[in-house]
Amino acid sequence: MAPTREQAWETLTKYTQSEALRRHALAVEASTASYARRFAEDEEQWRVVALLHDFDYEIHPTLDEHPQDGAPILREEGYPEEVIEAVLSHAEHLGLPRDTPLKKALFACDELSGFVHACGLVRPDGIDTLESKSVRKKLKHPSFAAGVHRDEVYAGAELLGIELDEHVRNVIEALRQIAPQLGLRTATTAAS
Ligand SMILES: [Fe+2]
Ligand SMILES: [Fe+2]
Q1: Could you give the count of Cα atoms lying within 13 Å of 110 in the half-sphere of its Cβ?
Q2: 137-147: per-residue pLDDT in tens?
Q3: How far, in Å, CA of 102 to CA of 152, rounded?
Q4: Alpha-carbon span 169 to 161, nearest angstrom
Q5: pLDDT, tens digit, for every residue of 85-105?
Q6: Residue 189 Cα, ligand 1 centroid: separation in angstroms?
Q7: In angstroms, what is the span from residue 58 Cα to ligand 2's centroid?
Q8: pTM passes above 0.90
């Protein structure tokens, strides 16, 4: 049986208590799912992989463990190899081929979702009026959201074959849909 999004959420929240990490997973899920719809791919499977990509980060916070040591846990939890392989492919240091649309989309959405999320958090109306231009400008300021690897953001868009400007717009739109779950203010909450 193919794993469901709910199962992946259960696995994620079993190993991850941090609100920030759960929100990161939700942001990457929303962005990746938007590309699944765009490419008419298996949205449920893409959501599963996106939710799980950093599921072990809290228990394996260093790259000598994450995400490779998470793989046996996912196997034990009954996830198919296809899902596990896609999860592992997001890690630069493992050097695995990103040879499917899912692997490309996950890589392209991972760092950028985190970055757009950070952009939304510093704005009074969250992500409501955030534009691609402002995100791209902030990308050039290394001190803003310094943990986000810019080279991976640029490489991701290229791998996906989508212009950076459009990719940023897609990720903004995807995150906007779930703004409250990401702790982002919206026009309604900002006014109150
Ligand atoms: Fe990761
Ligand atoms: Fe991530």
Answers
A1: 28
A2: 999 999 999 99
A3: 16
A4: 14
A5: 999 999 999 999 999 999 999
A6: 31
A7: 12
A8: yes
